[in-house]
Amino acid sequence: MILAAGRGERMGALTATRPKPLIEIDGESLLARQLRRLAAAGIREAVINLSYRGDQIRSAVGDGSRHGLHVAYSQEPDPPLGTAGGIIQALPQLGREPFLLVNADVVCDFDFAKLAFGGGMGHLVLVPNPSHHPRGDFGLDRDGRLIDAEPRLTYSGVSLLDPALFDGLPPGRHQLASVFLRAIAERTLTGVMHAGLWFDVGTPERLEAAASALRGH
């Protein structure tokens, strides 16, 4: 599943008339880059959630065949349902097997094909804390389990999740962080630290930084 429903308000004029996932770096949209990399990792089916100007994403991606994928869509209201709320709505399309979750606006070189469960309900890719998020999100203990303690790393926006992680949550607006914290308390999440290329493209400045890094990568 690719999370692509956000409005991207911090991008200013860049998202005034288009959704953030369709912003381009060197002629390739953020969303197209994710689709290309998912296909290269052996993924063949994807669900994309939509809200803000979602019709543009449908038009750009279509059925996904040009990217080597079969793409389905989960339409949300405006404002959207939040990261976890969007997943909960899409669960009937995702099925009951573990699924890869990727934020559309993350630029990274982590190999999706290497993501595998370490046991539990989810396996998250964590990265060193960027300057715009110095406090991080979650800690990682010696056994590779996520903990709610210092020192913290930042959730990259890439994870492998068991749909059962969302059992008991009703439809509606939910954030993924609260779901993760509940699972961390139950010691059912594991993680891995990625020290390679990673950008959360949340502002024009970070978009330019990601573009510069990719050109030199």
Describe the structure.
The protein is an alpha/beta fold and 217 residues long. It has a single domain, classed as Spore Coat Polysaccharide Biosynthesis Protein SpsA, Chain A (Alpha-Beta Complex). The protein is 25% helix and 25% strand. Strand 4 (45-50), helix 2 and strand 5 (70-75) form a beta-alpha-beta unit. It is globular.
Defining traits:
single chain, 217 residues, alpha/beta, Spore Coat Polysaccharide Biosynthesis Protein SpsA, Chain A, nine-stranded mixed beta sheet, two-stranded antiparallel ribbon, globular
Which residue ranges are poorly predicted, with pLDDT under 50 across at least 5 consecutive positions?
Answer: none
Helical/strand content category? alpha/beta
Q: From N to C, what is the helix and strand string?
A: EEEHEHEHEEEEEEHEEH
Indicate the overall shape: globular
Q: In CATH's first tier, which class applies?
A: Alpha Beta
Offer a quick outline of the entry.
The chain is of the alpha/beta class and 217 residues long. It has 5 helices and 13 strands. It is globular and about 45 Å long.
Which SSEs are present, and which pair or pack?
Blueprint: E1 2-3, E2 24-25, E3 28-29, H1 30-40, E4 45-50, H2 54-61, E5 70-75, H3 82-94, E6 99-103, E7 106-108, E8 122-127, E9 138-140, E10 146-147, E11 152-161, H4 176-185, E12 189-193, E13 198-200, H5 204-215
Parallel strand pairs: 1-4, 1-6, 4-5, 8-12
Antiparallel strand pairs: 2-3, 6-11, 7-13, 8-11, 9-10, 9-11
